[in-house]
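hiii so um. not sure if this is the right channel but i have a protein structure encoded as tokens and i wanna go backwards to a sequence. like what aa goes where. can anyone help
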């Protein structure tokens, strides 16, 4: 089976989660983990599962303005934030705007601060909505992985992502068996 994990990451947290999900998915087949800028039609073609995730900014998926603010925050004097190598590329909203029909199985995730969703927002819900709008069938509920107020992953979140990825692999294998 072919599995593609697509991520958008500003400070590397979502990238780390995407890599962990990819490791968890390996039992189901060949896994490619790519930043959103590299997730073109050739990469997605023939995928049995597409897992898409990004950081939560201003209660949802990033926008050009929130990505710009994140870059500026990392560049401020005294900041300990480090931009992911692909941070200044295309965001998920732009990617979805250019994406055609993608009739495959899918799952959505995000990274966000811990707290009630009403206060933090949750990009994964919007990602899941967009995936279904483009013809995907979700195989699990959208998932959030938590970061601290200092923009570092909470303890054990990579392990949670690995476990979630393994669960997605099992679900995909069950679907393929029917």
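sure thing!! here u go:
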């Amino acid at each position: 089976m072919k599995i593609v994990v697509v991520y958008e990451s500003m400070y590397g947290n979502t990238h780390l989660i995407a890599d962990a999900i990819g490791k968890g998915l390996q039992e189901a087949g060949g896994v490619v983990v790519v930043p959103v800028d590299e997730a073109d039609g050739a990469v997605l073609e023939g995928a049995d599962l597409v897992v898409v995730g990004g950081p939560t900014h201003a209660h949802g998926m990033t926008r050009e303005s929130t990505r710009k603010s994140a870059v500026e925050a990392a560049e401020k004097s005294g900041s300990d934030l480090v931009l992911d190598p692909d941070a200044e590329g295309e965001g998920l909203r732009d990617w979805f705007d250019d994406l055609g029909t993608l009739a495959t199985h899918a799952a959505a995730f995000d990274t966000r601060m811990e707290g009630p969703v009403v206060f933090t927002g949750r990009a994964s819900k919007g990602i899941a909505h967009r995936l279904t709008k483009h013809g995907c069938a979700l195989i699990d509920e959208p998932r959030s992985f938590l970061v601290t107020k200092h923009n570092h992953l909470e303890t054990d979140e990579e392990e949670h992502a690995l476990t979630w990825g393994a669960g997605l692999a099992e679900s995909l294998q069950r679907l393929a068996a029917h």
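oh and Strands lie at 2-7, 30-35, 49-55, 105-113, 137-138, 143-147.
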